[in-house]
Amino acid sequence: MRLPPISRSHTTVLTRGRWVFAPNWQAAVAVAQKPPLWQTLEVINHSSASHQQSELSKLPAHNSNPITNGRLATSSHLLLAYALDLYRSPAEPLSQSKLASLRSLARNNSIQLSIITAKQVLRGTPQLDPEIADLLCSSAEWAATLHRLTIKGFTAEDVSHWAWTLIPREPDKRVARKWYSGRQAGSDDVEPFDPYSTITPSLFNRMVEGLCHHASRLQPDVLPDIAHLSVAYIKGISHSCQHPGKAYKLQCQVFNGTLQAVSLPSGKSPYGHASHNWRAITVLLSLSSSLERPLIIEEESYRAIRQILLASPKTASERDTASTLSSSWPPYRILRDGMEEKADTQEYLSRVVKAGFMMQEGGYSKKEIDLTTDVLGGMAPDGSPTVQTRANYPRHLRVEQGTWAALIRTTRNAQEAWALFKNPPEPGMRPTFEVYWEMMVKLAAEPADPGHHNLPGDGREVFPFNDRNFSDFEKARINPPSIPKLIEEMFNAGVAIRGRTLAWLLRQAPNVETALEYTNHSSLDEALKSKLRWCLKEYQRPPSNPPTKLPSPTDLPRDILHATIDLVCRLQPNRTANTPDYLPNHKLYPIHHALRLAQTGWKSTHATGRAPWELLMLALGRPNIMVSNNVPRDNDIEVVNMAFKVLEKAEEHSALSLGMIDSFAQAVRKAVYSRLPILLEHASFASTILPEDEEFMSLYQARSTEFVIPNGPHVFRKLDSAADVIGSWRQILTPVFKSRQERARPQTPCRVVQQASERLKAAWRVLSTKASARQPYVDPRVTASHINSYMRTLAAVGDLEEMALLLCWVVRDWAPTAGSDLSLADARRLSRAAIVFRAFAEPLLDGSVVASLHEEVEIHSEKGGPVHWPTDHEVEQYIQGDEWGNHRNLQEVIKIAAASKQERQLLETQRSGDVDRSWGTCKIK
After folding, report:
1. What percent of the chain clears pLDDT 70, i.e. is strictly above it?
2. Domain of life of the organism in this record (predicted)?
């Protein structure tokens, strides 16, 4: 019996209905035609290891082809996820896009396993929407469809069992059903089983590979836990297998399979998460060294180890070596004393190169990929040194002249790279696209920050080239060309721009004219080039005058369309000291064209992808972006209103992300900060204060009474006592940015900021939590940077209650799960968030609330938590350290509000005293 294979390129099923990655060989299944489907199961024993092995060999290859129906192209696994969602919550209203997808599923006649399973789930869904139920085939046609599966070696019982495994809402129950071995069919009670008789080493390796794939994509910090799981399995093999030689062979098989699986770099931030890969590898290597007979490391496992070492930061000794390299090329180490002169040269080699020697000692000869890894690790093929360069270089990558390209990458500046480009490793070699690519990246690299501690090879930045002793002629000779000239030379040599390089070049292009040149020199066909040229040339078209018929750029590769939107967003002007008072209107149109492109490229509601909307929000979050010729404070309000539109479209087409909300928060802060100087100026002359300013000052009203902070964890829980509140915050609050009727009417700046604050709070609950709103858990994607940005924005809009809740949430919920492995930079950001609370919320809050929070933070800090209560000096230093003066302006506004609070308290005290005296006089009379 086999579960439908889940493609590694389509992971929606796992994220919505976890653990769909490995076959289940034990459970009982029902005949698909027997009602009520999978609720009644008959026991079928498939638990033997021999049966598993035979079934495993018959598994079909993964098929991730989308199901296409006209303009609809939806992944089959996404359709399965939709069907499971509908079964679990049949009463929940469906969006138009999801309803259209489910209708397409119901009339789909494919025998793809994911589609068959999804239709089985639909047929068993209670109270199925008639719009979907009427499109399902009859029982006879369904039986015939299931009979067609026999060609692939599957049965109706298989399909029924797959559905039964996937339908529970709780992930733990799905896992339990996956390994079901109970006596009574359909029961949720799971009996213990022997994993060594149930899971063969081959099956275990496949399971670990699936786990590591999704862990590297979703949560890389669990890779060491997967390694520990493999260690336990490897140790158990020797006890379950009677033959020592066979047991050792199986141990090596699992050891190497896991070693290669845990070395898969993270899909996002592979350098930042390389430490998790390395910890997982060391867990396995420690096991091997602890055994009486160390396990054999295979050739591919050595490459996996070297790949992670290459992506890891330099050790102290490697940094010492990198800091002593000569300025000439090759960069030989400068020996500083007699001890270093006597030392063996291998002592100064990097871990990557040493691992390569160990690989040779293990009996494996080096191939082209190994020589390329050596070059990046600090040693050229001839044994001369290079600059050890941190790189995420796939071990399976095979490119022509990869060693030459790697040599160019290891240089410290464009001059050294150009010298190696003009002098190939072997005479007569012609540069390939990869060689040109590394040269282009070196030309586009930013100069290293003098105040940073990075060494050559730590990043892509370039370091100064010492040409003080060169003549002008020599300087001109060694000076590299510009990127456009190199592109032209490459094109003349018959090498076209291909792959993702065009998207990268579009992002680097300084203007549209250069981008058009890159387009002409690319390998795109003429039809795509024509569409791309239109996307680039129309950036100054007025937003109120779009073309009558927009040519659809949906055929363009996504990365190219994203890069085009990014380029157009960069063309939107910033307000600087040299900006004239009035700009021609056409210079203010690019951001509107970018929004039009994003909507055109994603005009189908079935299309997903956050990239275009994140790019637009990044542009709107820029400090001085101009969208109108109005004064800055009015321009910034228009930026917020435009952000509303972008986020509404983003939510319709895909989903919100923390990055979008971070940019939105920055736009809201700008809108507030630009009005603060005017508020202070008018406040100093009470007679000139405007109603609009007075309304804006009301944002910072002091709170003289206590508000309720929930006790215990789950601070952002829904406080309603209604028992029917079972959904997550996402289900309750989505759509967050749907347009409201009141937005169509003119609104004051204060009302716009208040609306932005309300939407921001709703979006924060949607994105920072998961699971039920009654007991929400922390989303692991929330970082200290997000917390700091959110706290600063809450301070700007005067939301004191939310600031207190956020501080409690960080201490009680976020820090215990995510605060144990903070970098120094993240620890500073978290500290600044606490400083913001003290600086801008404490003066306006009731003293008892502040004292309670102070005590809780101190207790948390004493237990080793990452948050501490800031001192008065830290608060003052933070306020005065803002070079733009925004923090000082906000502090002054809050002082005015706090003074008003004291005046009201004094007035209430006097009034109370007058009442007491009057009452005493009455009693005397």
Report:
1. 82
2. Eukaryota
435 contacts 498 by C-beta, under 8 angstroms: no
- Specify the DSSP class assigned to residue 271: T
State yes or no: pLDDT of 50 exceeds 70. Answer: no
> Residue 786: which of 883, 664, 605 has the closest Cα?
664
Q: Token pair 């009463």 is at which residue? A: 91
* Helix ranges (DSSP H) in 501-547: 501-508, 512-520, 526-537
CA distance 118 to 125: 11
C-alpha separations of 759 from 212, 633, 647, 737 in Å: 36, 21, 10, 7
Q: Measure the CA–CA gap between 921 and 208, rounded to whole angstroms.
A: 85
- What pTM was estimated for this model as a whole? 0.71
Which of 797, 789, 791, 809 shows the shortest CA–CA distance to 853?
Answer: 809
List Cα–Cα distances, 902 to 139, 892, 907, 908, in angstroms.
77, 15, 8, 10
pLDDT at site 566: 92
Q: In whole angstroms, how far apart are CA 232 and each of 99, 207, 236, 237, 419? A: 46, 15, 6, 9, 52
Q: Can you give the length of the chain in residues?
A: 925
Give exposure, 398-433, as e/b (b: 16+ Cβ within 10 Å).
Answer: ebebbbbbbbbbbbbbbbbbbebbeeeeeeeeebeb
Give pLDDT, residue 327.
85
What is d(CA 661, CA 655) in angstroms, rounded to the nearest whole number? 11
Q: Pairing state of beta strands 72-74 and 67-69? A: antiparallel
User: How many whole angstroms separate alpha carbon 579 and alpha carbon 585?
Assistant: 14
> Which of the four pLDDT bands, split at 50, 70 and 90, describes residue 45?
very low
In one-letter notation, the amino acid at residue 486 is: L
Q: What is the pLDDT of residues 317-338, one digit of tens each?
A: 889 888 888 888 888 888 877 7
The secondary structure of 115-166 as a DSSP string is: HHHHHHHHHT-TT--HHHHTTSPPHHHHHHHHHHGGGGT--HHHHHHHHHHH
| Mean pLDDT (the chain, rounded) | 80
Element at 86 (helix H, strand E): helix 76-88
Phi, psi for residue 562 in degrees, rounded to 5? -60, -45
Residue type, 194: D
Distance (Å) of CA 427 to CA 184, 381, 421, 424, 546: 74, 16, 12, 6, 56
d(CA 27, CA 2): 11
Q: Check if the beta carbon of residue 159 is closer than 8 Å to that of residue 120.
A: yes
CB atoms within 10 A of CB 479: 12
